[in-house]
Amino acid sequence: MSNSSHHVPAIVIGRLPLYLRALTQLSSEGRRVTSSQELSEKLGFSSAQIRKDLSYFGEFGKQGTGYEIEYLEKSLREILQVHHLWDMVLVGAGDLGHALANYDGFESRGFRIVAVFDANPSKIGKQMAEWQVQPMEELDKTLRERNVNVAIIAVPAGAAQAVADELVEGGVRALLNYAPTTLSVPPKVKVYHIDPVAGLQSMTYYL
Amino acid sequence: MSNSSHHVPAIVIGRLPLYLRALTQLSSEGRRVTSSQELSEKLGFSSAQIRKDLSYFGEFGKQGTGYEIEYLEKSLREILQVHHLWDMVLVGAGDLGHALANYDGFESRGFRIVAVFDANPSKIGKQMAEWQVQPMEELDKTLRERNVNVAIIAVPAGAAQAVADELVEGGVRALLNYAPTTLSVPPKVKVYHIDPVAGLQSMTYYL
Q1: pLDDT tens digits for B131-161?
Q2: Given B86, B182, B197, which is nearest A106 (Cβ)?
Q3: What pLDDT digit, counting tens, does each position of B85-109 carry?
Q4: Is B65 helix (H, G, I), strand (E, B) or coil?
Q5: What fold is seen in the domain A5-78?
Q6: Cα–Cα distance measured from residue A13 to residue B5, given in angstroms and rounded to the nearest whole number
C-alpha cells in the first residue's frame, strides 16, 4: 500500500469529506479530541477503515490518545483543498436552483456561488437570493474572467449535457450534477452525481 | 470473505445502486451484455472491485462473455428490494420540496411519493405537483394507515431532528435527509444524507 497521495483510491477521497463534516460537528460542540471508534459510530464505517484511510496522509492519531480534532480538521481541509474558497457558478434557476442559492452551508465549507444562469427568458434578470439570474450567453465570459473551476448543474435532464459541455469549454473541472442523467466529460473533469434514488436504494436493502 | 448476504459491507451495498443505474442506462441504449471493464469505465471503480462486489450475491458473469444486463439488472433490483414500489412521504414544501415533488425519476426506480407535509400554515392546502400539502398533524395518521417505511426530509436544519423523530415514531425506517445537519436515530433506522458540499469536496482534492 503506497503512502503517496498520488495513489489514494477515489473511494478513500470520497470518505474524507464525511470525516471532515463529523470533525467540524464535534468541534462545534466544543470537543478537542476524538477517536476512530467515535468517528466509526457517527459515520458507520469501521474504525479500522477510518484509521487506514487517514494513514494515507500521515500520522494523525496516537495509540491511546486519539485524534486532535482541530489539527485533523485543518489537515483534511488542506488535503481536500478547501482551506480557501472556490468560486462556483450555478446553472439552473428553477425550484432546485432556488433551494441551492439559499443553501447556507457552502461558504463555511469552502465554496461560494458567484453567479447564477438560466436559459429561460422568464427567469433572466430575476433576483434569486443575492444573485440576479443571468442569460446563458454570459456564462463563458464569467467563467473565464473569474477563472471558475467548479459548477452546479440544476437543469432538467434533457439540457444537462449541453450545459456540461459549455461549462467544460469555459474551464470548469468539477461538476456537481443534480440532473437525473449521466454526463459525458473529458477525463480531466470530475463529476459528482447527486442521485436521491441511489441513496434510497442503498437503504431499502436493509428494510 | 463470507458469501452470506448478511455480511455484505455497507460500502458494497452503497455501490449496488450505481451499478443498477449504469445497467439501466445501458439497457435503455439497447445493449444486452456488458463487462466489469465497461462498468469500471462508466463508474470509476476498478473492474476487480466490481467483480468482487457482485460476487457477494452470486455468479453473474462468465469469463469471456461478461454480464447479461437484463438478468443482472433484475437481480440487483431484487437484492435492493426495489422490484416493487416503496411508498414514501415528503416533509418540506419549500423550494427543495417543490423540486423533489416534480422529480420524475422516483417511480421507475422503486419509489413513489404518497403525501407531502409542511409545518408552515401558508403552505398547507397548496397544490404541489399532484399533491396537496398537508399539515404535520396529519403525518402520523398517514404513516400508520399506509404503512410508510421511507421518507424524505426537505426542511431547514433547525427543524430536521424533530421531523425525523416524528417519522421514526410513525414507523419510518429509511430517511433521505436533505437538511444540512446530522440526525440522531435509533440503530434500526437508516439515514442517507444528501450533502452537496461533501460531493464538491471529493472533487476539489483533484483540482
Answers
A1: 999 999 999 999 999 999 999 999 999 999 9
A2: B197
A3: 999 999 999 999 999 999 989 999 9
A4: coil
A5: Arc Repressor Mutant, subunit A (1.10.10)
A6: 27
Total Cβ atoms within 10 A of residue A25? 14
Q: Do A192 and B206 touch (CB under 8 A)?
A: no
Residue owning grid cell 421514526? B168
The three cell numbers of residue A24 are: 467540524
Q: Domain residues of chain A, as ranges?
A: 5-78, 86-197
Type of residue at B75: S
Q: How far is CA B94 from CA A115, B58, B99, in A?
A: 22, 44, 9
Chain B hits for A106, Cβ within 8 Å: 196-197
**Cell (9 digits) for B103:** 422529480
HSE (CB half, 13 Å, CA atoms) of A145? 8
Q: Which fold has domain A86-197?
A: Rossmann fold (3.40.50)
Please report the ipTM that was assigned to this predicted complex.
Answer: 0.94
* CB neighbourhood size of A45 (10 A): 20
- For the domain spanning B5-79, the CATH number is 1.10.10.10
Residues of B in contact with A128 (CB under 8 A): none
The pTM score is 0.90
Distance from CA of B134 to the nearest CA of A (A): 20
Here the cell at position A16 is 474524507
Q: Would strands B131-132 and B134-135 be described as parallel, antiparallel, or unpaired? A: unpaired
Chain B closest-CA separation from residue A89 CA (Å): 13
Q: How many CB atoms lie under 10 A from the CB of residue A121?
A: 8
**Is residue A86 within 8 Å of residue A114, measured between CB atoms?**
no
